[in-house]
Amino acid sequence: SVQTSRQTNAAAIAAGKMEIYEGSVEALPFADNTFDKITTVESFYFWPKPQENLKEVRRVLKPGGTFLLIAEIYGHDGLSAEVRENIKRYHLYNPTPETFETIFRNAGFPSVQVHIEKDHRWICIEGQKKQWPLAFLATILRRIAGACTWRARLDDTTTGIPAAHSGPPKA
Predict the structure, then answer these.
(1) Please, which residues bridge with residue 114 across strands?
(2) Strand pairing partners for 113?
(3) What residues form DSSP beta bridges with 35?
(4) Is 108 left (phi over 0), alpha (psi -120 to 50) or beta?
(5) 101 near 128, Cβ under 8 Å?
(6) For residues 165 and 146, what is the distance between their CA atoms, to the nearest angstrom?
(7) What pLDDT, on a 0 to 100 scale, did the predictor assign at position 147?
(8) In what order do the strands lie in the sheet containing 111-117?
(9) For residue 90, how many C-alpha atoms fall within 13 Å in the half-sphere facing its CB?
(10) Per-residue tens of pLDDT for the chain, all 171 residues
(11) What are phi and psi of 88, to 5 degrees?
């Protein structure tokens, strides 16, 4: 529970090293592009709308950021009868590794890797949000620099100081 997490981590919270929030994966209480890394362990089975909820996780992940989903149970032939019964009883979402990869890609993660720990059969799906291309960032920076240069030129002409910057030609 959130209360138990706050009690267990009271020292880290008091030191400003940790914050604990309660929320739903359907509408995460964070701005776009907030986190470098996001991890979920043993919760995906219960997500109300997995495909849409993955899009919400991607929304709060920074460009180039990584999302790790770790689960002990996933769709494979080696599941015991007891585990298969619990999946049905509790209506758990239990995709195969191939389905995990597909839903991650459909949610907008262009880079997806599926890792399976063979001894215990745990699965980890690693999705990376697309990084902004360097060419795009360079274009934005040139536009910002151009706007600053144009502003500097306007300021220079109003103060009588010769402009040392290039910019659009004077009309």
Answers:
(1) 125
(2) 126
(3) 61
(4) left
(5) no
(6) 10
(7) 60
(8) 35-41, 61-71, 122-128, 111-117
(9) 13
(10) 889 999 999 999 999 999 998 889 999 999 999 999 999 999 999 999 999 999 999 999 999 999 999 999 899 888 899 999 999 999 999 999 999 999 999 999 999 999 999 888 899 999 999 887 666 666 767 777 766 554 444 444 444 444 444 444 454
(11) -70, -50
- Residue the block writes with tokens 């701005």: 31
- The two structure tokens encoding residue 96: 């195969």
Q: Are 78 and 50 in contact (CB under 8 A)?
A: no
Instruction: Please give the Cα distance from 10 to 16 (Å, whole number).
Output: 10
Residue 96 amino acid letter: T
Q: How far is CA 69 from CA 36, 65, 128, in A?
A: 15, 13, 12
